[in-house]
Amino acid sequence: MTAWTVVLLIPVFFLLFSGNDESADRGPAPRAAAAHAPSSSAAPESSAAPRAGKRLPRARPTRLLIPAIDVSAPFIGLAIGDSGQLEAPPADDVNLVGWQANGVSPGEAGTAIIAGHVDTATAPAVFAGLSELKKGDRFSVNRSDSRTAVFVVDSVETFAKDDFPDQRVYADTPQAQVRLITCAGDYDHAVQDYTANLVVFAHLV
């Protein structure tokens, strides 16, 4: 079984430069952004501009807590490689999640990306129970500024990897949102990868 079970396709042309960086540990960085793609499950469009809602200043995430599925995991920063794919969290630590370190931080306005393995070649991993989450469940992210960002789940959806809605998942937003992403579907031994991705859509409360 492959050591990397989450493949996130973020086209390079979706990366925009953000100057909204209040972190003391690094300067302004790219953030994953795109226009929302039409979707049958998306909310109807409104003529009014979307409200920004609650948001926090930029800060590095330190721990992800999901009480509903007994997750308490530290973060590691991940980068987007030359291929346009997000790097994988190390497979030798089954209790570790990664965030797109050059993108939006959890709690900051925009769409933050958090990825984790569903399993490894030897054991279930941090996001093994992610599919059990449901709308209304809450989880939190501890941050380097000593604040805690609390999120509520909006939906839990599965997408085939060959028909993954990049724009809908990674679209930039005026609200503070987050996506939890792992692998799903069947394991294809021929290509040593899963056939789908599970995505949890959530927003800051």
From TrEMBL:
Q: From the UniProt record, which GO molecular function terms apply?
A: hydrolase activity
Q: In terms of domain of life, where is this protein from? A: Bacteria
Q: Where is the composition biased (Low complexity)?
A: 26-51
Return the InterPro entries for the record: Sortase (IPR005754), Sortase_dom-sf (IPR023365), Sortase_F (IPR042001)
Q: Where is this region: Disordered?
A: 25-55
Keywords, sorted A to Z: Hydrolase
What NCBIfam families is this protein classified in? Answer: class_F_sortase (NF033748)
What is this protein's name? Class F sortase
Organism listed in the record: Streptomyces lacrimifluminis
